[in-house]
Write the structure tokens for this entry.
Amino acid sequence: KQEVTQIPAALSVPEGENLVLNCSFTDSAIYNLQWFRQDPGKGLTSLLLIQSSQREQTSGRLNASLDKSSGRSTLYIAASQPGDSATYLCAVSPLMAGTASKLTFGTGTRLQVTL
Amino acid sequence: KAGVTQTPRYLIKTRGQQVTLSCSPISGHRSVSWYQQTPGQGLQFLFEYFSETQRNKGNFPGRFSGRQFSNSRSEMNVSTLELGDSALYLCASSLEPDRTSPQYFGPGTRLTVL
């Protein structure tokens, strides 16, 4: 059974700092990995999707890397802003055919960027 | 293009009642998935529908059911509500149920069972 863990569970940084969020998964048989952000009481916003054949994806100040063999992904946020404050979740999609939508989510990292 | 919409946004029910939640996917998206989010268990996959057929199901009791209509809109139903069913129910849509389509989530329906 796939298990996804995110460390740290909570993080507080001053504005402008660069930061890294970690995601680890126990079963390397994944097809892709997605990073989401969730604002309090709201749904999820997709940030980046990395196919298992890729090593990283970038969007603006965000960069996500994937090391499938070691079961790890990182989300790098450059020059953090107060608007980045949210919970960040990673989710893996299984490799087994026909099950791509059965995402397994991590426990989340609650990020607070202070002024 | 409008995002995924879910109705209602908030619901309060009592134990033993049943509830129906609705999800309208992004226009052109044909795959709809449902997730339950609770503080204790986090986000858990409920089921996925494509072309009016359930393709995948998570580890939830039979009280949880769903369906999809020909216009790709989906509903989920929970019968004989229990206190533990209180959660944020999220719907996600994607173009096709394949591996390269990211899932786009709606704002969720907050269900409180008293």
Observations:
- Chain B has no helices and eleven strands.
